[in-house]
Specification:
132 residues, alpha/beta, Nucleotidyltransferase, domain 5, five-stranded mixed sheet, 27% helix, globular
Length: 132
C-alpha cells in the first residue's frame, strides 16, 4: 500500500514550519520571511494602512515546499494562515482541493504540531477538544 503525503504547515509572518507526516516518520522544513521588521503593525499616528504587506517570496517558497502533498493542514496564530490559504487558491488552483483545514494554533512546539497532525490525519477529521 502506498503511503499518502500529509503535510501540516504552521505559519506566522516570520516563519513557516512545514512537517511532512507519514507512516515512515516526519520531515521538517523551516522557512523564514524576509520582512524588514519583526513587527507587523505600525505605531499610531503614522501614514499608511498600519500593516506591513505580505512577503510574496515567503509565500511562494512555502507553496513550493508543500507542492507534492495530497492533504494539507494549515495552522497559525493570526491572519498569516489565511493569507497562505488565499495565496495557494489564487496562484495554484489545484491546491484548493488538497487543503483539508485552516485552523488557529498559537505557538505550539514542533512535537505538538506533529502530534496534532497525526491525530488529525489518522482519523480523517479534526481532533475534538475534551471537556472537563
Amino acid at each position: 500500500m502506498q503511503e499518502r503525503s500529509h503535510v501540516v504547515v504552521w505559519i506566522d509572518h516570520l516563519q513557516a514550519r512545514i512537517f511532512h507526516v507519514g507512516l515512515s516518520g516526519t520531515d521538517q522544513v523551516v522557512l523564514k520571511s524576509h520582512l524588514p521588521t519583526q513587527h507587523i503593525h505600525h505605531k499610531a499616528n503614522t501614514i499608511g494602512s498600519g500593516h506591513v504587506s505580505d512577503d510574496q517570496d515567503f509565500l511562494k517558497h512555502t507553496a513550493e515546499a508543500i507542492q507534492g502533498a495530497e492533504q494539507i493542514l494549515i495552522l497559525g496564530p493570526s491572519g498569516e494562515k489565511t493569507v497562505l490559504h488565499n495565496y495557494l487558491r489564487e496562484h495554484i488552483p489545484n491546491f484548493s482541493e488538497r487543503i483539508v483545514a485552516v485552523e488557529p494554533a498559537d505557538h505550539p512546539s514542533d512535537g505538538e504540531i506533529v502530534a496534532y497532525a497525526k491525530r488529525y490525519f489518522s482519523f480523517g477529521e479534526a481532533p475534538r477538544a475534551t471537556s472537563r
